[in-house]
Give the backbone structure.
Amino acid sequence: MQTGTVKFFNESKGYGFIVEDASNRDIFVHITGLNGTTIREKDRVTFEVIEGKKGLNAVKVKKMEGVM
Protein backbone atom coordinates (compact mmCIF):
# COMPACT_ATOMS: atom_id res chain seq x y z
CA MET A 1 0.00 0.00 0.00
CA GLN A 2 1.26 3.45 -0.92
CA THR A 3 0.40 6.64 0.92
CA GLY A 4 -0.11 10.10 -0.46
CA THR A 5 -2.04 13.36 -0.47
CA VAL A 6 -4.91 14.27 -2.77
CA LYS A 7 -3.65 17.06 -5.02
CA PHE A 8 -6.91 17.59 -6.90
CA PHE A 9 -10.24 15.78 -7.27
CA ASN A 10 -13.20 16.94 -9.36
CA GLU A 11 -16.33 15.15 -8.10
CA SER A 12 -18.49 16.20 -11.05
CA LYS A 13 -15.99 14.81 -13.58
CA GLY A 14 -15.00 11.85 -11.38
CA TYR A 15 -11.21 12.08 -11.48
CA GLY A 16 -8.17 13.71 -9.93
CA PHE A 17 -4.58 13.16 -8.82
CA ILE A 18 -2.79 11.91 -5.73
CA VAL A 19 0.82 12.87 -4.95
CA GLU A 20 2.57 9.68 -3.84
CA ASP A 21 4.72 10.15 -0.72
CA ALA A 22 7.56 7.79 -1.73
CA SER A 23 8.22 9.22 -5.20
CA ASN A 24 6.44 12.61 -5.16
CA ARG A 25 4.86 11.70 -8.53
CA ASP A 26 1.26 12.41 -9.52
CA ILE A 27 -0.93 9.31 -9.76
CA PHE A 28 -4.24 9.51 -11.63
CA VAL A 29 -7.33 8.50 -9.63
CA HIS A 30 -10.77 7.79 -11.10
CA ILE A 31 -13.97 7.69 -9.05
CA THR A 32 -14.21 3.93 -9.71
CA GLY A 33 -11.01 3.43 -7.68
CA LEU A 34 -12.39 5.00 -4.51
CA ASN A 35 -14.03 1.97 -2.85
CA GLY A 36 -17.17 3.97 -2.05
CA THR A 37 -15.34 6.70 -0.15
CA THR A 38 -15.15 10.39 -1.01
CA ILE A 39 -11.91 12.35 -1.19
CA ARG A 40 -11.07 16.02 -1.27
CA GLU A 41 -7.98 18.12 -1.88
CA LYS A 42 -5.34 17.66 0.87
CA ASP A 43 -6.87 14.40 2.21
CA ARG A 44 -4.27 11.82 3.25
CA VAL A 45 -4.96 8.47 1.58
CA THR A 46 -3.67 4.93 1.14
CA PHE A 47 -3.91 3.25 -2.25
CA GLU A 48 -2.52 0.67 -4.64
CA VAL A 49 -1.08 1.51 -8.06
CA ILE A 50 -1.91 -0.34 -11.27
CA GLU A 51 -0.91 0.25 -14.88
CA GLY A 52 -3.89 1.75 -16.74
CA LYS A 53 -4.45 2.44 -20.44
CA LYS A 54 -2.74 5.84 -20.22
CA GLY A 55 -0.38 5.39 -17.28
CA LEU A 56 -0.46 4.72 -13.56
CA ASN A 57 -3.81 4.66 -11.74
CA ALA A 58 -4.58 4.68 -8.02
CA VAL A 59 -7.08 2.00 -6.94
CA LYS A 60 -8.43 0.77 -3.60
CA VAL A 61 -8.14 4.36 -2.37
CA LYS A 62 -9.01 4.85 1.30
CA LYS A 63 -8.93 8.01 3.37
CA MET A 64 -6.54 7.77 6.33
CA GLU A 65 -8.59 8.17 9.50
CA GLY A 66 -7.63 10.96 11.90
CA VAL A 67 -5.08 12.47 9.49
CA MET A 68 -5.45 15.75 7.64
Observations:
- The chain has one domain: 2-63.
- Residues 2-63 form a domain with the OB fold (Dihydrolipoamide Acetyltransferase, E2P) fold (CATH 2.40.50.140).
- The chain has a mean pLDDT of 94.
- The CA atoms of residues 2 and 12 lie 26 Å apart.
